[in-house]
Amino acid sequence: MIRILCSLLLLVVTFLPAFAQDQVGDQDQSPWYSNRWKGKWISCPNVPQRDYGVFHFRKAFALEDQPTTYTIHVSADNRYRLFVNGKAVVSGPARGDLHHWYFETVDIAPYLRPGKNVIAALVWNMGVHAPIAQVTAQTGLVIQGESEREKVVNTDGSYNVLQSKAYTPCSTDNMERLNAYMVIGPGDDMDASRYAWGWQELDFDDGGWMQAQVIADAVPQGVGTDNIWTLEPRNIPLFEEKPQRLSAIRWVKGMDSKAFSGFLTGSTSVTIPAHSRVSLLLDQSVNTVAYPELLSSGGKGSSVKLSYAEALFDQHRQKGNRNDVEGKELIGNYDVFRPDGHAHRLFRPLWLRTYRFIQVDVETADEPLVLHDLLGYYTTYPFEMNAQFKSNDKHMDDIWDVSWRTARLCAGETYFDCPYYEQLQYSGDTRIQALISLYVSGDDRLMRRSLLDFHYSRVPEGMVQGRYPSSRLQIIPTYTLWWISMVHDYWMHRQDDPFIQQFLQGIAGALDWYAQRVDQERGMLGSIPWWPFVDYTPPFTSGVPTGATDGHSSVLTLHYAYTLKQAADLFAHFGAPEQAARYRKEADRLNTATYRLCFDQARGVMADTPDKQAYSQHASILAVISGCIPETDRQALTEKVLDDESLIPVTFYFRFYLTRALLESGLGDRYYEKLSAWHDMLDLGLTTFSETPEPTRSDCHAWSASPSYDFLATICGIRPAAPGFKRVLVEPNLGALNEVEAVMPHTAGEIKVQLKRDRQHGIRGTVTLPEGVKGDFRWHGKQQRLVGGENTITMDDRPQSL
Fold first, then answer.
1. What is the pLDDT of residues 10-35, one digit of tens each?
2. Does residue 255 lie within any of the structural domains?
3. d(CA 696, CA 313)
4. Which intervals hold domain Bacterial alpha-L-rhamnosidase N-terminal (predicted)?
């Protein structure tokens, strides 16, 4: 107990200045943000404030002239879409929690004009149907002008509001129909005859609407003592949104397919006769995340059901080859649009949809329905591909492209584990996603945001929540360790000490939670509560290895030791050497005990528990990367992991850590030969990489996009050799490849690698580093110093002379 108290005192003395800093990091503290806002949170009166509801808010105001700038800040609970003079301007807010509720800042001057103007917002609350990723208090909208000039748009009782009766939730039984965990929220059933068409336009008459109800002050972070929402500026950019045409009509039922010629390009309308039932299956050709938009006319009394799926199912509920549609059916979430007979009605769901396939089911009544157009608006976090990778194996191009598509679709206002089923941010997934972001895009803003999210999620026991933001508490103890690893990753790749320091107290608390669960007699972790998930490999029950819940799991103990060493690096860097030394000593003690109790000398691998009844690749992988195995024995153990088919196998997720073990063992050259799982997915017609091997739930899962990182970090061997990426290590692992060429973003510029391997003479090429950046090139035990600019590489494969 004395040791723990002393450690906590050391933390307070050492890191208190960092904890006092703004947790958002480098956010601009302008006067409107540091003072109390004048705008109020408003809502619709006389409605249950936490129930499902869709609301229209608007206010007219006059301007004497055309402003050059007119900056406002806007947020809502759950979500909003803002219009100015009928034009869609911005959507949000980025999901957070009630203590960190984000608002968007936008200059609306380009949408304004002299004279009368109108600002309007569509606000919706999904109530009990809300996605689990959605934290909420009640229905609300807030708008705040930047300065005195813009205060006329501040939300207060001068706004009018209408509760829309057009919307009802549908597709609320997705989990039952798909027999899968699905928590993204409901579909939209929209009745056009009950919709206030043109409500956002300048000349709309809102005379019959109610006066908005003021429900709370707008309180920024650091202000107020009785807050509903504590507001912070959005710390990530706005979404990318661009039109995306569907590629093909796979079949049509109930009409001649020739009638739909030109429909997907928007050049030809299609008339569905009265009293008809028509269905068509549309194929985007690749998985996507988008807002579908359907434009139609007429068809009073008809219905149009839009169903979305990543893949179709056969009669055995198997997906098979994703390109095949014959004999299969679409089972998925859906929306319903009910036309009112008027011309050019546009249906767009309230939230984005994930799909490769869209099935359109039309049923008309007494009037024909004209379908003018159907397309999607691709919507994701605006990552840009600033990296390149090429090799002499052209099949690698497809893995590179599909990996990046997978990563893109799994990035929104947070990282998503999967866009179709959950849209939740899990730290286990996010660690891999964040590294992909740094290497391929160079954009670290979403990584910073995710580190903060998990920091904010901490519970009193010391754990961070397994997924966050989330309206339901879920603790995955192993994922707390991966969050610590992600802090370490950020420290190695970015020079940003003030931002990192704020996490040290949380790291210490989490490691103390683990320390209290060590069986001191045996030197391994005892029983671990909550959900100690490791990997969705079938022999693990719900992803949990043997010994995790009843004690003495080598997998969990070695994972803890691996993380202790990373934490030691952090604490040593930030001026707490005694704390760092204690972590290293504890890691060594855990490694020694686990090796003694669990290493099977006869089989040459690590058992999952001391009774040596179960053996997984995971245990031996963690034994290597934690340093449990002596350096001289790591290569032999890793070769066993690769070749011993009796071991419980890793899935796509934990292959990321298998690759780390390859590098630790000097076997990085074998990474290339182990890409067959990704080639197999491509052969099955997947256009994003799936959650697990077949049969799989999700066809798009971020943790399977790791080749986007490893083509650069493992094959090309580009890795940081010092914190902040101040030094660069280039240690390629080409395997059977003869040529590689890559470009990777670095905070100081670009790292470029061009290498050719001559099997007789060695490796030749160039490595280019940003000016002022130094590093090392390593190849088969040889080393060459690298400097800023272009470095010529010439090394042979012959061993060095003694």
1. 444 334 333 333 333 334 444 445 45
2. yes
3. 12
4. 68-216
